[in-house]
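forwarding from the other thread:

> can someone predict this with iron/sulfur cluster?

sure thing
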Amino acid sequence: MPRAFTPKVVTANHLLEGDVIYLTAQDGWTRDLAQAEVLTDEADAQLRLLFAEQQPTTVVGAYLADVTPGTTGPEPAHFREDFRRKGPSNYAHGKQEAERHV
Amino acid sequence: MYNYTEFDKSFLAERNAQFRAQVERRIAGALTEDEFKPLRLMNGLYLQLHAYMLRVAIPYGTLNSAQMRQLALLAEKWDKGYGHFTTRQNIQYNWPKLRDVPDMLDALAEVGLHAIQTSGNTIRNVTADHFAGAAADEIADPRPYAELIRQWSTDHPEFQFLGRKFKIAVTGASEDRAVIKAHDIGLQLVRQNEQTGFRVLVGGGLGRTPMIGKVVRDFLPEADLLPYLEAILSVYNLLGRRDNKYKARIKITVHENGIETIRALTEERFARIRPSFSGVDQDLLPGIAAQFATPSFKSADTAGFTAAYAADPVFQSWVDTNTAPHKAEDYAIVSISLKAHGATPGDATAQQMRVMADLAHRYAHDELRISHEQNVILPHVHTSDLAAIHAALRDHGLATANIGLISDIIACPGMDYCALATARSIPIAQEIATRFEELQIEHDIGQLKIKISGCINACGHHHVGHIGILGLDRAGVENYQITLGGDATETASIGERAGPGFSADEIIPAIERLVYAYLDLRENPEETFLQAYRRLGLDPFKSALYPAAAVAAE
Ligand code: HEM
Ligand code: SF4
């Protein structure tokens, strides 16, 4: 039996701002994980990653991150992605400071 | 203080203009990230978890007040109002924007600072004893040699693409405050037959394979320093492994080939290249040394100090804990703690930086140092000025009397910032400091160094902490491994792993058990944690960490 595919999102850092962004289903980028496109098929995920990598003047270091689908959108599967979603724990800086869109 | 020459200034200006153009080309899409990354790293610019990070070198940890004020300006204008001082005597800004970085570098150049060779496989910022030029136990100020090495190694064509990064530390004292035994090359100034020279150590390092440096030359005459360093680097450049990044540091080269082979090859190479060193470097040295001349110390009445010391227990405790003996009469070395209980180790706000700059300017011959322990030093303070300094520090959250104590923790940025991290380190440091402040026992515990890294790279020096904490990722959960008995000084040793790791919730109680065990086990209050550990070995501490009840319950 083929291994179940863990759902993913495409994430990267923004070239100019350096902050964490996620690919949306509308081919745009969001700073809010809940708005990210959830990819449930491996081939599709690879295509979306390629799409992201073709935008070198917007994004840096695109990769696929595991998520768990939730009622209000995808949730990070690993604590590293949880920190990327929120910001550091020693100051209320980063995403927890402000919510904006690209 | 070393003042940069016209050559340095035009070199910096040219380098910054070059980088500005590279940033423009990256933004325009003319450079790919693969092309740009090595260029930005050469200029100290990393991309971290939440943002870019700019690492600024503070050569041998020495700053004047104008430079410190400029660091404050950068924090305020282009970052979030603070900076993070690191174990490499650097400062890191955690939130710069790509477009702003060239302006930041220009602002740094105005005061002779830069971010060159703070990254990449080059000879990194040369570090030195943070008490250099002031310590009572020093043979000579090591910083002129550090500066000479900086001039020789900056942009040295042979050493821009080494097998791996290369770190050199220098001390002029017998008490090692510069961790020279955990550096690729460690240099200790020594005197032999009226002659000044160096004891040269090679092959120390931390990271995933920690090693204590070995003596390659017992006495190297001062004049042979650069050719000898060049010989070591050439041997390393040829012999060092390039097949595996994790085996590429010189510590592995020394370990795999043996110190005898390295010594023989180095001496052979040295003999060959020594004649080509015309002595230009030695002509430079007196000029450099003159710039580090000891300031003209004052004499003043110390009765006020004696009275304040007797009358104010808070001041007394700060003096006892945060000052060290100075070579000049009635002078002291002041360590300003950037480890207020519960704060992020090594962080200072722009305002705090300005306060420290003002104090240095007013009372301390305009000098500041950054210590590898992530604190700031005022190296030359007359005791009659201590009370005024303490009062000013207290008003700005900088008067914590905890230097060398359990809350004076080294912690790397960990998963809160670092893209390589496997767990957080900062919150663990914050919680330990807060807990022991609540217990009010840290002065009773005495000298105890806790060092925390958020991954195996060991930027937080955990291997050489009396108690080392390494944050790992165990099946998607943060887990903290404890090592015991490490030592970063002249009696250096690598800590021993105590046993299975602890969860984020368990690690603070575990440290508490360990410390109470030490308090029970020590022969008297003078026996430090490390001494007790060396006398008793791992077992009694292990029993405290893993009580039978807890083991049985698993
Ligand atoms: C945040 C970005 C950082 C990155 C990407 C980074 C990366 C690394 C890596 C990969 C190593 C292992 C090198 C090896 O074993 O070959 C290392 C070691 C080290 N780093 Fe960092 N580091 C960072 C921050 C820091 C900070 C903040 C400090 C100072 C507090 C620091 C000081 C050191 C030290 C002292 C070592 C161990 C000494 C040695 O090189 O053997 N690093 N770092
Ligand atoms: S030890 Fe690891 S987590 Fe900490 S700063 Fe170094 S690379 Fe990052």
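Residues B 46, 48, 53, 86-88, 92, 164, 167, 205-207, 249, 412-413, 418, 420, 457-459, 461 surround protoporphyrin IX containing FE (ligand 1) (CB under 6 Å). thats all i got for now
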